[in-house]
Amino acid sequence: ADVRSGLQLLRELYDSTRSDDAKRDYLYYLALGKNHSLANARLNEYEVALKFLDAILLIQPGNHQAKNLKDEVTRRMNREGYVGMGIAVGAGALLLG
C-alpha cells in the first residue's frame, strides 16, 4: 500500500512540474517504484515501468541508470515469462498423460 501511495505522489509531482530535470527524475523513480513493487508485491506492471524508462531514454539516450533499470526489468519479464511457459508446458503434459 505504501509503494502504491508513493507512486501516486510521484505521478502528481510529475504532472505538476514544468522542469525537465524534475520530470526525468520523477519518471526514473516511477519506473524504479514499479520495478520494486514487482519484486515485492507482484503488481505485474512491467510494461508501465518500461514506458517510463523509454520516456527517459527518448529525452536522454545516454542515461545509464535508465538503461540499467530497463535491462533489469526486461530480464525479470523474460525470467517470469519462461517460468510461466514452463508451468504451462508441464500442465499440458499432465493433461496429455
Outline the structure in words:
- By secondary structure, the protein is mainly alpha-helical.
- The protein has two domains: 1-40, no CATH class; 42-86, no CATH class.
- 87% of the residues lie in helices and 0% in strands.
- It has four helices and no strands.
- The longest helix has 33 residues, at 64-96.
- The N and C termini lie far apart (43 Å).
- It holds the Pfam family Fis1_TPR_C.
- This is Mitochondrial fission 1 protein.
- It comes from Rotaria magnacalcarata.
Structural key phrases:
97 residues; 2 domains; 4 helices; 87% helix
* Unreliable stretches covering 5 or more consecutive residues: 86-91
Number of helices: 4
For the sheet with most strands, the description reads: none
State the helical fraction. Answer: over 70%
How large is the radius of gyration?
17 Å
Summarize the helix and strand pattern as letters. HHHH
Give the termini separation.
Answer: 43 Å
Record field, number of beta strands? 0
Based on CA inertia axes, which overall geometry fits?
flat
